[in-house]
Specification:
The complex is a heterodimer of chains A (399) and B (258). Chain A has helices at 41-45, 113-120, 163-166, 172-181, 198-209, 222-230, 238-241, 244-251, 273-283, 292-300, 322-327, 339-352, 370-378, and strands spanning 2-6, 12-16, 28-37, 56-57, 61-69, 83-86, 89-90, 126-127, 144-147, 155-156, 190-194, 214-219, 234-237, 259-262, 306-309, 331-334, 363-366, 387-390. Chain A is built from 13 helices and 18 strands. Chain B contains 8 helices and 7 strands. Chain B is globular and about 50 Å long. Classes of the chains: A alpha/beta (399), B alpha+beta (258).
């Protein structure tokens, strides 16, 4: 089968690899009909995430048709022929954490838990196509994929609703929604969201669904800010205003947003001196992340407010303003998304027509073009917001 | 009868002597190689490696005379009842499903079992052990019979935990390492530290009891790997000494429990 493989920093190739096989009783094999490049895949593309290995198959946003299920899968829950969206977090469904709906913290799904334990004390769940520290599972930017614990994660979707509308239930829609849930929004609140990529876009719309009165979106690309405005947000182009924290003060009568969301993560772009220091340290591998946005979130948040971090961080970060965090009595909520909490309710939203997630798609290409699309997406060329790959197409289709 | 025992003892003695020779040369060669690799690095880490390698070779030359007991201990909390956890463990024949260093455990009689294991550097070890304590849902303890190739004792305890979190499993083992302190040092240098292996065993036990399988990516499809990646994979301390259990073994074990 064809699969997008990580062959080194900024080196993705489409390789012919053996088809996946069932390895465990609760596995399923899914034929992938649609798969996407996620913003967090760019951290792997750029080589900032430790424990990738040459030849790893990429991708954690995918959906498709179940081809085969293992002997341990209850056929009432999942069987060959079912059409499913697969969440990017892998969960066993039976451990302490799964039973408390903390799905992304599953205790059993990461076979390489001990690597994560060395870095983080304890290990979160396994993820598809996202480093060996997170399990080393082959990902879904491929024609077929092995899905472990298939009776827990995959969400069955009815026929008749196109892939484009439900594919984002695999990660970015629930992740944006979870980011908004973590903002602890009260009726009438103002929420500031850094990053108007796909997760930011879903977070904007989710914040309104959850009762926010104002959403202020921050980015530097006009086409992304325009998309944020379409979703009802006011916007700040930080390259134009210079000081984002002051701009937010000015926009909120000097009290600050009630909640601040970092939908950017470890590869933030910035304009201040510290940004360039971080960039240099990250290049020299003495710092894993560039926490520019997290710093701004903490500075900008109103006293007693909430900082929500759906953006991905990898390791150890410098110069986090803990003084501001402590003295302003802030709350921080974060984590990989507890996918199975949100997939079904959000599918209901889509089916009711409350939201049409297809608005984020900017590119639809055959899988062969994935390597070049990583670069286009990373460099925000061609007004790129979201790339959907067709693993089976022969030629390019217009977006 | 006495004659037979005598022959067995003599044979065992010869086997042990041969084993010691193998260990000695293994340590000398391995330690020497480490020392050379270390010296060619020309860095502090390299010199440390060289020193460790040298020490290893020296210990090898001394014939690994350290016979002090080794003690490993690990614990895990399982989301199940003490009864389930106990019942699973009590079927000692199934231990190799989640204990990767074990080759097999076979029943001799109600109270005695023959254990076959793979030690450091692939040395095969075998011993007969008897169950010295068995209290349903609480404890199982065993000890090797006198005259065994390996002097070993172990126990596993099951207790309900506070806050309704299931069963606390505490496993413990004491043994004279098959190749003395040397074997321990070598296996530790290769990442196969007994305490780590024991913790890994317990995590696999937990996954098996809770989910019915042991999560793995062993044998999954992937793109072309470089020689560097292959080397890194080989050095991976989690790399089991023995191959992973097959799905079939796991399913059979689960069926026996059910």
């Amino acid at each position: 089968m064809k699969a997008v493989c990580w062959m080194g920093t900024e080196k993705m190739t489409v390789e012919n690899v053996p088809d996946p096989e069932i390895l465990n009783p609760r596995d399923a094999i899914v034929k992938v009909t649609s798969t996407c490049i996620c913003g967090s895949d760019l951290h792997l593309y750029d080589g900032y995430m430790p424990t990738m290995e040459q030849g790893d198959i990429m991708g954690h946003e995918f959906m498709g048709e179940v081809m085969e299920v293992g002997a341990g899968v209850d056929r009432d829950k999942l069987k060959a022929g079912d059409r499913v969206v697969v969440p990017f977090t892998i969960a066993c469904g039976r451990c302490y954490f799964c039973q408390r709906e903390l799905w992304s913290l599953c205790d059993n799904s990461n076979p390489n838990y001990w690597i994560a334990e060395k870095m983080m004390g304890y290990s979160p769940s396994g993820l598809f196509g996202y480093t060996h520290m997170m399990g080393g599972y082959a990902g879904g930017q491929a024609q077929y994929v092995r899905v472990p614990f298939a009776d827990v994660g995959p969400l069955k979707v009815p026929e008749g609703i196109p892939d484009d509308k439900v594919i984002f239930l695999s990660d970015i829609f629930p992740t944006g929604y979870f980011g908004a849930v973590n903002c602890n929004i009260q009726q009438g609140d103002t929420v500031a969201i850094w990053g108007c990529g796909p997760v930011g876009q879903f977070a904007i719309r989710s914040a309104f669904l959850l009762g926010a009165e104002r959403v202020i979106a921050i980015d530097r690309f006009d086409y992304r800010l325009k998309m944020a405005q379409d979703g009802g947000a006011e916007t700040i182009n930080y390259e134009e205003v210079g000081d984002v924290v002051q701009a937010l003060k000015d926009m909120t009568g000097n009290i600050g947003p009630d909640s601040c969301m970092d939908a950017v993560g470890m590869e933030a772009h910035g304009t201040d001196l510290l940004y360039f220091v971080d960039k240099a340290k990250q290049t020299m591998r003495v710092e894993t992340d560039r926490p520019t946005v997290l710093r701004q979130c903490i500075q900008a948040c109103r006293k007693g407010g909430t900082v929500s971090v759906p953006g991905v961080y990898g390791g150890f970060d410098d110069k986090i303003p803990l003084g501001a965090f402590m003295n302003k009595a802030l709350t921080m909520k974060t984590g990989q998304t507890h996918m199975m909490r949100f997939m079904k309710p959000l599918l209901d939203h889509i089916e009711r027509g409350d939201i049409d997630p297809t608005f984020v798609i900017s590119h639809r290409v055959p899988i062969q073009q994935a390597p070049e699309m990583y670069k286009v997406f990373r460099d925000k060329q061609d007004h790129c917001t979201k790339v959907v790959l067709d693993p089976w197409a022969d030629g390019a289709k217009a977006a | 009868m006495n004659d037979v025992t005598g022959i067995q003892q003599r044979n065992a003695g010869r086997r042990n002597a041969r084993g010691r020779q193998v260990q000695r040369w293994g340590a000398l060669l391995g330690g020497g190689a480490l020392a050379v690799i270390g010296l060619t690095r020309r860095s502090p880490a390299g010199f440390a490696l060289a020193a460790a390698g040298g020490a290893l070779a020296y210990l090898g030359a001394k014939n690994g005379s350290d016979t002090s007991k080794y003690h490993a201990r690990a614990s895990v909390i399982l989301n199940c009842s003490t009864e389930e956890a106990y019942n699973f463990w009590r079927r000692l024949e199934d231990l190799p499903v989640f204990m990767r260093h074990l080759d097999s455990v076979t029943k001799i009689n109600d109270n005695q079992y023959r254990w076959r294991a793979l030690g450091p550097l692939g040395i095969r070890v075998q011993w007969d052990a008897e169950i010295v304590s068995d209290e349903p849902n609480q404890i199982i303890a065993w000890r090797s019979l006198p005259g065994s190739e390996l002097e070993i004792e172990g126990s596993v305890r099951f207790q309900t935990t506070v806050g309704n979190r299931g069963t606390l499993v505490e496993a413990e083992t004491r043994y004279v390492p098959p190749a003395g302190a040397l074997g321990r040092a070598v296996s530790k240098a290769m990442g196969k530290d007994p305490k780590f292996l024991m913790q890994q065993d317990l995590r696999r036990f937990k996954a098996l009891v809770e989910t019915g399988e042991i999560p793995t990516t062993e044998g999954q499809t992937h793109g072309p790997r470089s020689a560097m990646t292959a080397a890194a994979r080989w050095a991976n301390p989690d790399q089991p000494i023995r191959r992973e259990s097959k799905t079939k073994d796991v399913l059979t074990a689960m069926r026996r429990i059910a």
